[in-house]
Give the backbone structure.
Amino acid sequence: MKKILTTSSIILSVLILILGCSETMSLPGTGETPTGGINSDPNKFVQITPDWSFDQLNLTSPVDVFSSKDGRLYIADSSENRITVIRPSGEVESGIYDSLGNLSISPTSVCLDARFNVYYSDGGNKIYFWPQFSATIGIAGIVTQRYYDVHGDSVLMDPLSGLASGFAAINNSEIIDSSQTAFIDSLMRPRVFYDPQSDLNRVGLINTENDEVLIAGDAIYASQNKSFVALAPAPAGELSIYTADAINNYIVKINLIPTVLVRLTNGQNVWQYIGMKEAFVATPGTGAGTVSAPVSMASDNVGNIYYTQTGDYFDVHKLSTPGYNSGFLVGIDDIMGLGEYGYARDITVSPDGSIFVLDTIDHDVKMFSSSGEFLKSVVVREEWLKLSDSTYYGDSLVVKDTLVLQQYPDLLNNPFALTFYNEVLYTFDNGNHRILRFTKVDDVVISDPDREE
């Protein structure tokens, strides 16, 4: 018994010595302020609670989401044939948005352009749209004619001819027809935007006065089966959107062709559009910047295009504008690493250029810098582990504490979609029927979550 007590006293003395040294003794020879740890991660994301349940938002099978510049989330709910719109507060929109509540198709992709036109598709061979801005304000009538300044003379023309001529329209000179009520009503409802088999896309845009071909059609592409699985807007200054064709392995640029000029009830004149193919900006292949079984797509503020795919060989690509050349280099940029992903289901880009890739199989969101460098996994559970070890420096015994970040990818179950708005990353966790929200801001205080720009 005496021997045991002596041994315990020795152990206790050593522990007291170790604890005392760890609190008061600095590592010799460094003289540096310690760095690293919990508060030094510039890409630290924290979860916003509570989670949003699908039941709360009246969602069943959401498969795609797009965040507009005013913060609303447009959610393609395929099994319900609708696009649900929710505010940043989680409130479900109604009223005018009910136009998207009973669609003729099962939407699987959705996006908006800067004009607040809503585009959507069902993985088939057409793209649809709803002119939200015109429908929200209301259409007072059709602009049938207006006066244009032609070398100092006022000349009356129909708006399309005036637009093609390049002459300046004279303000407040429009002739408005408000009698075409059925036609006006149709312009405020969802309808087909891009049909590759239409005369416009097969034959081209023709000047009826002299039969001149203004924009060539594509009869070959019109005859092929297509599967438009993803959509993304072009920059605000361009009249175009992008779509990914999963059957033919194309990224297609589609121009907005003006058709009818309408007068809104607020006095503003706004064009209505129809879609026409401009070009294939990416074509089939297995290298950087080519297409093989695309799945999702996004674009940034300057028009660069990002897409994910399941074919050979690289899961994530970037097309840089202008020119649409590959923005990432194979073997150099982490984002194009072979075996980097289980299944890159969706992609989104933040305003600062950070790239987020939703990995359905790995149950996480992989965050990359704008240059394609892997930064970390987010939308995962994190714990900081404190590892302690002792060592001798000369005759002194010191304890070194090391903080190690441990990540557990157990939050997500069969996630399908994600989007980024105002420093918040929204991830659709379909297996758990909820939306998870993560932000880089540690302390979130939102007095008015429905703020608009």
About this structure: Helices lie at 2-24, 132-137, 159-165, 181-186, 199-203, 219-222. The chain has a mean pLDDT of 88. The first strand starts at residue 46 and ends at 53.
